[in-house]
Amino acid sequence: MSFPYDNPANVLRKLGLVAGGRLLNAAKALFSKNAPLTVQAAVFAGRDKITFLDIQNYQGNIFELAAKVELYVQEHINWRADLSGSIRVEIPEIPVRAIKEAIINSLCHRDFSNPKSNEVAIYRDRIEIFNPGLFPYEYSPEDFITGSQPSIPRNPLIAETLFRSEDIEKWGSGLRRISQECRAAGVKVTFTKIKSGFVVTFLRPETRNMQGDAPKGGGVNGGVNGGVNSLLDFIVRKPGLRLPALSDKLKISNRTLEKWLTRLKNEKKIVYKGSPKTGGYYPV
What we know:
With 284 residues, this protein is an alpha+beta fold. The chain has two domains: 24-203, Heat Shock Protein 90, CATH 3.30.565; 219-283, Arc Repressor Mutant, subunit A (Orthogonal Bundle). The protein has ten helices and twelve strands. The relative contact order is 0.12.
C-alpha cells in the first residue's frame, strides 16, 4: 500500500473499509479468506461452449481470484520463443498486462448484488472476460478509451484499494490501457455492453508453436501440441533434468510442465530415471 502502516486494522481504517467497528462488505470482498466470490474459467475446444477441455471454479477474495485467473489464462494461451538474441524470450499471443488489466477490472467493477459469477472463457479463436456488472448506461466504452469522460467506479472503495495496491494505475484508465497494450502487440480487442453485464474479448492471433515456426493446428490444441513437442525436443537434447531445471531453462510454469511431462510419459516417449531428488527425465 502507498502509505505507512503498522497493522491490518490501521490499513483497513485508512482505506475506509471499517465503519462502527465492523468490516464493510468491500473489505470482505478484498481481503476475507471466506469471501463468497467466484470466477468460472474454462477452455473450450472450438468457437462455442459445446465441448470443453478444462473447467475450473475458483473461489476467494479479489486479490486471490485475480492471481489465480491470471495464471490460468497464461497457462492456456500460446507462447512463442524469440531466439534472436542471446537470451530466450517467451512472448504471449496476447499481452499479459492487457489480460491482467481486464481481469482486475472485471472484479473491481462487478455488481456484487448479482449472484452470477465472473467468467473467463478461452475459445479457439478468442478469449472472453465477462463481468456481471452493467456498463454505465449513457456511456460507451469508447468514452473511456479516449479519456473524454471521468471515471464512474461502481465500487469506489474497492477501486481505491486496488489503486493503492498498484493493481490499477488510476480510475477510468483500464479500458484505455487494455486497448493500448493490444494495439502495440497487433492484437484486436473489443468491448461489448450486453444485457447481463460487460465483456472484454481478445481475438487470438494465428496459432504458432512455441518456437515461433509456421502454424501447426489451431487454438488451444495447437499451442499445447507445439509445447509438448518442444519439451520433448529439449529433453532429447538435454536429458537428465528434473522439473525445476526444465522450468528454469524453458521459462514455463511447473504446473504446465507437469501436464506435458505426464502426457509424454503416458505416450511412452520419456521416462524418469533415478531418485526423486537426483534423477531426471530421459527420452525413450
